[in-house]
Amino acid sequence: MNTNPKVSKTILDNGIRIVTMTMPHVRSVSMGVWVHVGARDETDAESGLSHFIEHMIFKGTARRSAFQIAKEFDAIGGQTNAFTSMEHTCYHARVLDIHLETMVDILSDIFLNSVFDEREVARERPVIFQEIGMVEDSPEEWVHAKISPAFWGSHALGRSILGTPENIQGFDSRAIRNFFKSRYRPDRIVISAAGNLRHDRLVGLLTPVFSSIAAGNGLMDRCSPTDAGGVTCRHRDLEQTHFCLAMRGVSVTDERRFAASLFNTVLGGNMSSRLFQTIREERGLAYSIYSFLTSYADAGMLGIYSAVTPKDAGACIRLIMDQVRQLRQEPVEKAVLDDAKAFIKGNLLMAEESPENQMVRLAQNEFYFGRHIPMQRVIDRIDTVAAADFLDLTDGLWNDGHVALTILGPGVEKDDFSEAMAL
């Protein structure tokens, strides 16, 4: 059996890009219709529209009702969903390879022919209000949501993808149609698919329907952010104090991204990381502690989350910052760096076995680099990272000592934590 994946790309006359990876050893196909438009591309008055459209796409077309869309996917055992990020919106599905044509027909129909009926808009508003409420009800999600405005300030990256309740209440079908028509242009659309498929067959299915979209005027300009910073506190009667720290990170295309990924792994990316071992295993201060990277086209953030007994919050933050400072000042041991490399490479290679992961990676590489980047090239770059690269990375990112903090719990005061955050 041939198990070598093959990547192909076709650009339609109107600018829509179709990228595929043939994986003949699997039985399924994952496909995503991606738009290079996200929450950061909205004005303040439009904030939440990209996410609202994501919901409304599944609410009916000229050919299908919302129920029929759901029923037809269920009838073929398919899985379908959508998501909105700061920079993209994606409508995706996964089916058995024998149902490729049906999946293409449904996804094409909802993407090109959604009616955005006013009655469905009214029915969907309370659903989005509930989604906003879920963030408020979850302490962990709340501190994650609030770290963006704490770190990015008034920039669009600091806004919630969900929008504000006031905006959601004011959006109607006309506003949704206008935003869709102006932003969902061919040069911003990538259709990616991975699995047991033939590229030429998929192109043959997609071309007649997606060629009907008139060419657009190119991508909109994006304003790059500057870091804001500060402490955001909210009192809430909880058993734990939840907090999220943020420091400057790297962009998706930054050459330092390989060092940053390894730094994140060593700091708090797995169970052998310094934060997990120090905070949980040695001190027993927290059940959950981890670090994470958030990267965009032109900026990035390194975040750290934990939840502790309220009286231990200040001590925990000081211990976290001690570990960060140590990694800034002392070269990491070769054995630790090698373990981090093995961890990342293992995760990347295992993810390659998933058509859904490959579908996502195809689209993201196309958006950010304009081409497919073989996994072996990524592995090779990870292997070249040395301990000195950690020191160079942190010197370049954190010379100004810029840190942001969001904290939620009983009796929290901003002044209690400012000193503990010092880099």
UniProtKB/TrEMBL annotation:
SUPFAM superfamilies assigned: LuxS/MPP-like metallohydrolase (SSF63411)
Requisite cofactors: Zn(2+)
- What family, per the record? Belongs to the peptidase M16 family.
Q: Which PANTHER family match?
A: METALLOPROTEASE (PTHR11851), MITOCHONDRIAL-PROCESSING PEPTIDASE SUBUNIT ALPHA (PTHR11851:SF49)
**Residues in Peptidase M16 N-terminal domain copies:** 18-164
Q: Which organism is it from?
A: Desulfosarcina widdelii
What is the protein name for this chain? Peptidase M16
Q: What are the recorded Gene Ontology BP terms?
A: proteolysis
Instruction: State the taxonomy lineage.
Output: Bacteria, Pseudomonadati, Thermodesulfobacteriota, Desulfobacteria, Desulfobacterales
Q: Which residues form the Peptidase M16 C-terminal domain?
A: 175-342
